[in-house]
TrEMBL record:
Stearoyl-CoA desaturase that utilizes O(2) and electrons from reduced cytochrome b5 to introduce the first double bond into saturated fatty acyl-CoA substrates. It comes from Phanerodontia chrysosporium (White-rot fungus). The keyword Transmembrane applies. Residues 1-27 are annotated as: Disordered. GO terms for molecular function: heme binding; iron ion binding; stearoyl-CoA 9-desaturase activity. This is Acyl-CoA desaturase.
């Protein structure tokens, strides 16, 4: 940050060691001068490009991306039709798929876009070269888009906005000029990195070398399969790496569970992890993007995490960031509570205490002469549909019609199960005046309602909330 301040305050002529203008300019974070209401203002006022129609389609196509994403698979398919795939070439293609995939996942994504660990220079060069072999743009360009994706997820400022559909977030955003400009995201830290600058400078040559020449040469020099090397380890492998990465923007925002948060579209799924070299636990990743892991459990598939860990053991990587377990578990708990709340809301509960009429002992006696009413824990219950169902026999219920059966119910005659208590609460038809003052908690609250999921703003008014419950009841009695 200090260099940023210095750059802003000091003009180039006053600087004792002036650097090239382009470097100087890039060191100012892109988002340092944005207004406080940048997101809302931009979303409201940014004028999108007109919708794509048949008439303007050609002007809206991103031709370079279209060429790369159509010619590569065409070469691979042509190769499959005209050249026999050798075992050695197949194995090499798979290996090179993982190498270049890791360049993106461990390099572009976790190291540079998210700074989730520190990498030594040799590892950085390896990842920059491997990532170049995946032909997905320079590190800087890639990270700028990805940081905007995390910052403005699911909005028009998100370059791969998943709300625009699976295919848009997978590939459409690259083929058609975006309707909205991606939101601002700072990558000034990357401009200072010599490896990134080196890659940026030699990018085209590195693509030719590591996207095509190297995979071809290994198969050619290794076992004489030059053509196979080009068709399969070059083009075919590239096609797989492309769609593997694209799946992080599409499949990972579409398939699976949301165990940490459901505010946005990212999801966790094993299949996504499988096809993306471990980037499939995307719900976790969007919540804890600085964590070097995507999968937090040992049995989940995250080879990128394993690779980074092995590098750290070899002294090539350090400062692997892990989000505090306590905070991770808070996210999990929140989602578990949400699911429990849904279950809770799907059940039918005893009538609300406030809605029950308060009845005097005399009135209770009068009505009990007409229908089977029994008092237990201050509540009047109509047991007419239960007389013949009572496991202890009809006679025991009949015996207590018009009487208080609290003691008998809670162990005097039989210590009823929690299920019996829950069921009993469903038969409440009134509150006996003066009947609920004592034994309020255990006896008047059915077991299934003693522990409940409540929103923070519901706690105060709950009839089951200790002090307020008593005052509510006093109000009823009053
Ligand atoms: Zn995402
Ligand atoms: Zn990310």
């Amino acid at each position: 940050m200090s260099s940023v301040v210095e750059t802003r305050k000091t003009s180039p002529s006053q600087n004792p060691t002036p650097r090239p203008k382009s470097v100087e300019k890039e060191e100012v974070p892109a988002d340092i001068n944005i207004p406080d209401n940048y997101v809302a203002w931009t979303l409201k006022n940014q004028k999108p490009r007109p919708p794509v129609t048949l008439d303007n389609l050609l002007q809206n196509i991103q031709w370079v991306s279209l060429a790369v994403l159509t010619i590569t698979p065409s070469i691979a398919i042509y190769g499959l039709c005209t050249h026999k795939l050798q075992w050695a070439t197949f194995v090499w293609s798979v290996i090179y798929y993982f190498i270049t995939g890791l360049g993106i996942t461990a390099g572009y994504h976790r190291l540079w876009a998210h700074r989730s660990y520190n990498a030594s220079k040799p590892l950085q060069y390896f990842l920059a070269i491997a990532g170049t072999g995946a032909v997905e743009g320079s590190i800087k360009w890639w990270c700028r888009g990805h940081r905007a994706h995390h910052r403005y997820t699911d909005t028009d400022l998100d370059p791969y906005n998943a709300h625009k559909g699976f295919w848009y977030s997978h590939i459409g955003w690259m083929l058609i000029k975006p309707r909205y400009k991606p939101g601002v995201a700072d990558v000034s830290d990357l401009s200072k990195n010599t490896v990134i600058r080196w890659q940026h400078r030699w990018y085209i040559w590195l693509i030719i070398g590591f996207g095509f020449l190297l995979p071809t040469a290994v198969a050619g020099l290794g076992w004489g399969d030059w053509k196979g090397g080009f068709f399969f380890a070059g083009a075919g492998r590239l096609c797989f790496v492309h769609h593997s990465t694209f799946c992080v923007n599409s499949l990972a925002h579409w398939l699976g569970e949301t165990p940490f948060d459901d505010k946005h579209t990212p999801r966790d799924h094993f299949v996504t992890a499988l096809v993306t070299v471990g980037e499939g636990y995307h719900n976790f990743h969007h919540q804890f993007p600085m964590d070097y892991r995507n999968a937090i459990k040992w049995y989940q598939y995250d080879p990128t995490k394993w690779f980074i860990w092995v590098c750290s053991q070899l002294g090539l990587a350090s400062h692997l960031k892990i989000f505090p377990e306590n905070e991770v578990r808070k996210g999990q708990l929140t989602m578990q509570l949400k699911r429990l709340r849904q279950t809770q809301e799907g059940l039918v509960w005893a009538p609300n205490v406030e809605e029950l009429p308060v009845i005097s002992w005399e009135s209770f006696q009068e009505q009990a002469a007409k229908r089977p009413l029994i008092v237990i824990a201050g509540f009047i219950h109509d047991v007419s549909d239960f007389l013949d169902e009572h496991p202890g026999g009809r006679h025991l219920l009949v015996k207590y019609i018009g009487r208080d059966a609290t003691t008998a119910f809670f162990g005097g005659v039989y210590d009823h199960s929690n299920a019996a208590h829950n069921l009993l609460s469903m038969k409440r038809v009134g509150i006996l005046h003066g009947g609920t003052q004592h034994g309020l908690q255990d006896k008047s609250i059915p077991p299934a309602q003693r522990l409940r999921i409540a929103r923070y703003n519901e706690l105060g008014g709950s009839p089951y909330n200790s002090s307020t419950a008593i005052s509510d009841n006093e109000g009823l009695l009053g």
